[in-house]
Amino acid sequence: MHPDVLTRDEVRSALERRGCRRVPLMIRMWIGGDCYDAYGDRLRKFVETIPDDFLQVGFRAPGGWESSPDYPEYRWAIKDKPDEDETAKGIDSRRFLSKWDYFDEYIEKMPNPVIPDFFTDAAQVRKDNPDAFVVGMDFFCFYERLWTIRGMQDILADFLLEPEKTMRLTNAVRDFHLKVIQGYGTAKVDAIYTSDDMGTQESLFFSPEVFRKFLKPAYAALIEEAHAHNMQFWLHTCGNVTSIMEDLIEIGLDVIHPIQPYAMDAKATVEAYGGRITFMPGIDVQHLLPHCSKEEVIVGTKEVIDTFRHDGGGMIFSLSNAIHTDVSCENIEAFMQTAYDYGIKACKK
Fold this sequence. Notes:
By secondary structure, the protein is α/β, with parallel strands linked by helices. Helix 7 (163-187) runs parallel beside helix 8. The protein has 13 helices and eight strands.
């Protein structure tokens, strides 16, 4: 472990905007494996010189179409094979519940994560690292999970045409995640980090009214449960989600990632919501990292810190999404080194 990794208490102080000695970093999880394959020991050795202030842990998540022999029913599908040629379609068109005809059976067979050994590894990491800030991962929360069940086109129609069934399905997914939170709570992790890409480059996939009717109450229940276990609730959501930022703050969201460059206005977002939520801004992976010079990456990295960091903290520095080999090793190094060095300097100002 890097000697300058922030302690659990230091991280919490920064995230709760009570002060920090440097900007917390959460970078390694977004570096694609193909980068390590391409850049080899150079990248591996460099990454070890930059602290990552969060330990990520997982639980035994359900399968999709397939399941393990020891828990054959623990999967999102209830059929052994797709009822259509789903495997030939794009991921956003594959449907575990393609017809409402077997909806009751689907709800009855919803995967249940309440098995103690599903969280054993998380509990062991907590035990072995009492001073570290531990984050429990649970990606694909509501909209993302709903479209894997119904297909993206169908779930968007379902919000309008099948509201009762869609609400029931949303609540069943909510109950699954509540159990995951409870499992992580027993393991005593510090935060739960989930994902729900609700935005396009310009707006939500659906109206704010749809969010407020179907998803906001479900999120409120998860956040309340997380807080009851002394855990923060973090959300990754790509795209422009400006229209629901007030809703997310109202229900107590602790951290939001990535305030996507070119989709959201960083300075306007900080002006409107800074001090009421902690940002995990991501460095731009669409243009800056893959297409700009090392010098431009350095300038851009400093600009993100200057925009989002306040005296009490209020930010984690990350990537806006995964990076791959269209980003040079030199630019990865420039970003990470600047994020670390300038993150110290900025907190001393």
